[in-house]
Amino acid sequence: VNGQIEIPVVVHVIYRTNAENISDAQVQSQIDVLNEDFNLQNSDASLIPSVFSGVAANVGLNFKLDAITRTYSSKRSWRPNDDMKKASKGGVDPWDPSQYLNMWVVNSIKSGRSTILGYAQFPGGPAATDGVVIGYNFFGRVGTLSAPYDLGRTTTHEVGHWLNLRHIWGDGGCGVDDFVADTPISDGPNYGCPSFPTVRCSSTDMTMNYMDYVNDGCMYMFSNGQKDRMLSLFAPGGFREGM
Ligand code: ARG
Ligand code: ZN
Ligand code: CA
């Protein structure tokens, strides 16, 4: 697949309070972040260290906001069990996932006692739950946001998963890969804003990759290998062909 691929997006805002019913401007700011990050137009790309600048990818995906749906729910939090994707559970059913990237923006996602920023379904899962879920205060870069996750990178990360990317440490030790050759092997997530170089498993981690766990302001690239893995989904026979 060459050139620009367009991805129609529908954002389902599910709110209890007025603050959680985020503005159109906050939603649009998230679409803007995605269009920058997936086209290497993010201003912080200038921070990519020279050892990695040769593999920094212009993925070439265009996200087009087609609709925002707004739904009231009395729920104070949700679990990562896909209830928000089901009208029968007080959520909102997805628009045809073969034609749209569905994003659910909810007030809070609780996994055990902790709040998570967002989660995604990998390609190959059930159509009824395809898409990404993000906490409203981590969505976009203008409006009501919680630092250091206030630059829209949670959604960039989750859309990476939705396009089949793994965490760069492969969710395992030094012997486990993320199935991408140009992201160096690591053995766990990096947090905060790591200093460069951060060496683990005898190689320098690509801590500034969107698929690590660093702060929004400290992640600013996909790699060419990740680009190939994502774009293969849109090739003939790929899971997201015909989108
Ligand atoms: N913990 C989430 C996940 O694994 C998202 C992490 C996003 N990180 C960030 N800096 N926004 O899918
Ligand atoms: Zn993740
Ligand atoms: Ca790798």
Automatic annotation (TrEMBL):
Spell out the molecular function terms from Gene Ontology.
Answer: metal ion binding; metallopeptidase activity
Transcription in keyword set: no
Q: Cite the Peptidase M43 pregnancy-associated plasma-A domain residue spans from the record.
A: 93-232
Q: Where are the transmembrane segments?
A: none
Superkingdom as given in the UniProt entry: Bacteria
Q: Name one GO biological process term.
A: proteolysis
Keywords (A to Z) from UniProt: Disulfide bond, Hydrolase, Metal-binding, Metalloprotease, Protease, Signal, Zinc
* Key word Metal-binding present: yes
The entry's family comment says: Belongs to the peptidase M43B family.
Q: What is this protein called?
A: Zinc metalloprotease
Q: Which organism is it from?
A: Persicobacter diffluens
Its lineage reads: Bacteria, Pseudomonadati, Bacteroidota, Cytophagia, Cytophagales
Part of the intact protein present:
78 to 320 of 322
